Amino acid sequence: MTDQADPETAFLEQLGQRVRTMRGLRGMSRKVLAKVSGISERYIAQLESGKGNVSIVLLRRVSGAMGAHLEDLIPADEPTTDWPVIRDLVRNATPNQIAQAKDVLAGRGHGPFQNYMSFSGIALIGLRGAGKSTLGKLLADKIGWSFVELNKEIEQHNGLSVAEIIALYGQEGFRRMEQAALNGLLGRKEPIVLATGGGIVSEPVTFDRVLSSFYTIWLKAKPEEHMARVRRQGDLRPMADDRSAMQELRTILLSREPLYSRASAIVDTAGLSKDKAAAQLVGAVSRVLNTNAQAFGLRSAAS
Ligand SMILES: Nc1ncnc2c1ncn2[C@@H]1O[C@H](COP(=O)(O)OP(=O)(O)OP(=O)(O)O)[C@@H](O)[C@H]1O
Ligand SMILES: O=C(O)C1=C[C@@H](O)[C@@H](O)[C@H](O)C1
Ligand SMILES: [Mg+2]
């Protein structure tokens, strides 16, 4: 590798090195690897020397032939040298073991009512137009808690609008600021009703923090309802403002549904008026607060 190798050349060289190391670990000659993977020996030699810009499908064949995980061949900064061990233990763990491991790593105790790192309130999640802001404010007024909009917190902290942040710093920058803003809300003395941004589920650590600090409710609606509501607001983010917007919204909703459904509760607002949806939400929250007030460390329950 030359001193001034550009990042892409360096990446390919590291990839080649990883393939070579893994092949060595497996005790496979190039010839054997070529035979098992069905890829020519010459091509594997090129790949190992960092010269072949291999397609992902061929790389998958190479990793499969070595009985290795594809991700182990991709150069990356692993959080610890124990990472492959931890990852493989997690892969084989029971859901209960995973829950316990998460508690230990997050530094919290384990028990039926110690699920929350420290109870911070109610968080509303869901796609744009779900009603997080509108119904969240109504809920907060009803139970006498403060209402906080996470996107507004981010805007205030950084002196820029969400759109400006994404344009200037990209998704990654926005997600970093979102996590920082969320951290700033945790551990307050009084619980809050928090309206999150629709994409909060896309950053695993941030979303996990929401789930472990708030009783989280997914406000669900039909794709057409989401679209009609955000259109009325005149800003389609994160969909593009064109004819493919509806298709994009469906794709986003489909990919996020498994994450949204990790919420503690779901309030389905499909076909409901704003008032009826608010009543459903208040009802769901009142029930859970009445049952768990003590566990949440609240002085009194909502009525
Ligand atoms: N159940 C409902 N029936 C009809 N309209 C609703 C309902 N819930 C919300 N709305 C309306 O839809 C619009 C979008 O709602 P709201 O801004 O609360 O959604 P949101 O989840 O906060 O979206 P965003 O992620 O964009 O902040 C508002 O004009 C609101 O009045
Ligand atoms: O659903 C999303 O991906 C987003 C929703 C908005 O609230 C903003 O958080 C941002 O535009 C991304
Ligand atoms: Mg909102």
From TrEMBL:
User: Which reaction(s) does its UniProt entry say it catalyses?
Assistant: shikimate + ATP = 3-phosphoshikimate + ADP + H(+)
Q: Does the keyword Protein biosynthesis apply?
A: no
**Cofactors (names):** Mg(2+)
Q: Which domain of life is it from?
A: Bacteria
**Pfam families xrefs:** HTH_3, SKI
Positions binding Mg(2+) in this chain are S133
**Keyword tRNA-binding, does the record have it?**
no
One of the record's GO cellular component terms: cytosol
What is the first-listed, main subcellular location in coarse terms? Answer: cytoplasm
Molecular function (GO) terms listed? ATP binding; DNA binding; magnesium ion binding; shikimate kinase activity
Binding residue positions for substrate: R175, G198, R256
Q: What is its EC number?
A: 2.7.1.71
The record's section on CDD domains has: HTH_XRE (cd00093), SK (cd00464)
- Cofactor: how bound: Binds 1 Mg(2+) ion per subunit.
The residues the record assigns to binding ATP are G129, A130, G131, K132, S133, T134, R237
Q: Provide this UniProt record's keywords sorted from A to Z.
A: Amino-acid biosynthesis, Aromatic amino acid biosynthesis, ATP-binding, Cytoplasm, Kinase, Magnesium, Metal-binding, Nucleotide-binding, Transferase
Q: In which pathway does it act?
A: Metabolic intermediate biosynthesis; chorismate biosynthesis; chorismate from D-erythrose 4-phosphate and phosphoenolpyruvate: step 5/7
The HTH cro/C1-type domain sits at 19-73
Tell me the InterPro entries matching this sequence. Answer: Cro/C1-type_HTH (IPR001387), Lambda_DNA-bd_dom_sf (IPR010982), P-loop_NTPase (IPR027417), Shikimate/glucono_kinase (IPR031322), Shikimate_kinase/TSH1 (IPR000623), Shikimate_kinase_CS (IPR023000)
Q: Where in the cell is it found?
A: Cytoplasm
**Complex formation:** Monomer.
Write out the similarity annotation. Answer: Belongs to the shikimate kinase family.
The record's function comment reads: Catalyzes the specific phosphorylation of the 3-hydroxyl group of shikimic acid using ATP as a cosubstrate.
Q: What is this protein called?
A: Shikimate kinase
* Species of origin: Tardiphaga robiniae
